[in-house]
Backbone:
């Protein structure tokens, strides 16, 4: 009993086994903190990867839409060119018809 009270009062040095346990407990506590920090960092990295993946998908979708828009624009330009060529042909035919009408009117004296 006297020894326990002396130990409680700090008069006797700690048993080497107890000192070792305290040291291991401190190291274990440090490892737990390290693991918690590593898990937080891993989770943050996963979140960043997810954000970047979503951003990449958005960029790919935007690129796809832009490509489709460019293809539609090209088709529209081709159609416009074809329509302008047809319009010029029709204008030429109209001019020819008007010229023929004018010549007929001159021959008939109208």
Residues:
């Amino acid at each position: 009993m006297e020894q326990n009270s002396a130990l409680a009062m700090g008069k006797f040095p700690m048993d080497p086994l107890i000192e070792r346990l305290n040291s291991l407990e401190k190291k274990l506590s440090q490892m737990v903190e390290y693991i918690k920090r590593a898990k937080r960092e891993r989770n943050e990295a996963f979140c960043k990867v997810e954000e970047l993946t979503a951003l990449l998908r958005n960029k790919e979708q935007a690129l796809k839409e832009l490509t489709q828009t460019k293809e539609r624009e090209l088709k529209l330009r081709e159609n416009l060119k074809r329509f302008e060529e047809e319009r010029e042909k029709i204008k030429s035919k109209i001019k020819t018809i008007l010229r023929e009408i004018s010549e007929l009117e001159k021959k008939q004296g109208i």
